[in-house]
Amino acid sequence: MLKPFTGLIALLLLACASVALPQSYEQLYSDYRGSLYQIRLIELSSNSKAGLGSGFQISTDGLIATNYHVVSEAVHHPEKYALKYLSVDGKEGELELLDVDVINDLAILRQKGQPGGDFLRLASKSPSKGETIVSMGNPLDLGMTIVPGTYNGIASGSFYDRIHFSGSINPGMSGGPVINRNGQVVGINVATAGNQISFLVPVNKLVALLLDYKKEASAGNGALELQPIINRQLHQNQQRIIDQVLAADWQLRPLGDALVVGEISASIQCWGNSTDDEDEPITQVAKGCTGQDVVYLSEEFDTGRVEYEFFWLEGDEELRSSRFYAAYEENMSGFFPGNSAGEDDVTNFNCKQQFTRHPRDGSGKANGASDDPAEASEAQKPPKANGNRDPVIARTSYCVRRYKNFPDLYDVFYVSLTVDQEKRALVSHFTLSGFTQESATAFTEKFTSEIQWH
Fold first, then answer.
1. What's the confidence (pLDDT) of residue 140?
2. Rounded distance, CA 354 to CA 414, Å?
3. Distance between CA atoms of residues 157 and 316, nearest Å
4. How far apart are CA 214 and CA 231, in angstroms?
5. Where are the beta strands (DSSP E) in 207-257?
6. For 367-378, how does the pLDDT look when each residue is reduced to its tens digit (9 = 90+)?
7. Which of 55, 149, 167, 398 has the highest Cβ tally under 10 A?
8. What is the DSSP letter of 218?
């Protein structure tokens, strides 16, 4: 039986008011081991483990928190998978999936039958930078382990809040708690980059999910339908990202004969490289920018990505124009969307191709032209700028594929190749994954209008 919503408030207030003296690592493990569980994804046909993670009890009535990615297969294929828990003392039982937050990679489950007797309290404030905190979990199915490390605040360079934790989180520890020396949860294990660099979901994201679930449950809505919940979360997330991106000050950087988009925000990082091999007839300078994290939906499907890149190519004096463009098109034919998705997740791309004209003074957005730039009439050309210089002509592809299970969300793939110079060319590309048509259109107009030409 669900407890009233006020019971959660009392629990949170108790967590805030609880004060304990710092404990040793051995004492921490001894005191809180009863709250820890291995989360098992069971493939029903074979009745065998298909995946493992960690979790921890957060209430007296048997609520357990873990990562969404630990239980995602059971979300998408409940007819094929079940969820079970294994306590540190060897007690096994079934789990009921209650609510998820795919943006912050969290899930709430409930133990079926008699709940465990111990639970962890959720911290009301963040640790101080440099403070020692302790990660708990079950790495590589080796048994429950504690990993001390350092709290380094919220990591920069991401659209999604993640705590930078200096400690080794290993496979199988996903979804386990990270506690302070008073035994209160400050984060949830979620990812690692190796070499003592790991990432945690801040506990306030779990508090928000717990409050949301309790609110829905207390309203008497019965079992929550997860598909509409995930859809709403994805819509809200893409709107948050596009609002942040469009409101940013887009800094331009020189690349060949153009000024191209640099780092739009701290959440998007750019990298560059170049090829200057004397044996190669084409020199290439590349600049790529991408958001560092994505939203995990399943093993084959991720979303929430913003990425864009530019390539400037120049052919040497001895290279014929026809050979330049043959090599150019061959090298540039390998573009593909940055996010992964299977045929069960998305439709095929529907693409529109056209020639576009871009003013050299950077004013105004690109204008469409006929299928053959040689056939474009003078009336189709935008006004010449800066000394009557002709606009840049590019062959542009704009491709869209729809998400089958999430209405009004799409992947958008854009690539533009200039074709108006003999041995010099600029390639512009971007991918947006999981955005509405309105958001994608706004980004496209901004992106194409920002590129400027000398």
1. 78
2. 12
3. 38
4. 20
5. 252-255
6. 654 343 333 333
7. 55
8. H
- Classify residue 76 by burial, with Cβ atoms within 10 Å: 0-12, 13-18, 19+: buried
Structure tokens at 454: 């000398």
Q: What is the pLDDT of residues 49-101, one digit of tens each?
A: 999 999 999 999 999 999 999 999 999 999 999 999 999 999 999 999 999 99
Q: How far apart are CA 347 and CA 401, in angstroms?
A: 5
Q: Which residues of 158-186 are buried (b: 16+ CB within 10 A; e: fewer)?
A: bbbebbbbbbbbbebbbbbbbbbbebbbb
- Say how far apart CA 43 and CA 65 lie, in whole Å: 21
Tokens standing for residue 425 = 């060319």
160 three-class SS: coil
d(CA 228, CA 234): 10
Name the token pair of 12: 């949170």
CATH 1.10.443.10 fits 3-224, yes or no: no
Looking only at the bridges linking them, the beta strands covering 177-179 and 424-435 are: unpaired
* Region label for 299, one of left (φ > 0), alpha (ψ between -120 and 50) or beta (otherwise): alpha
Which residue, chain included where needed, has tokens 């708690």? 177
CA distance linking residue 434 with residue 432, whole number of Å: 7
106-111/145-154 β-pairing: unpaired
**What whole-number distance in Å separates Cα of residue 146 and Cα of residue 140?**
13
Q: Which two tokens stand for residue 43?
A: 């493939």
In sequence order, what are the residues at sequence separation of 6 or more whose Cβ sits closer than 8 angstroms to the Cβ of residue 94? 82, 83, 84, 85, 111, 112, 113
The residues spanned by each domain of the chain are: 3-224, 233-453
3-state secondary structure of 151: strand
Which pLDDT score, from 0 to 100, does residue 372 have?
Answer: 39
Positions in the chain short of pLDDT 70: 1-23, 220-223, 331-334, 361-388
Q: How far apart are CA 192 and CA 176, in angstroms?
A: 13
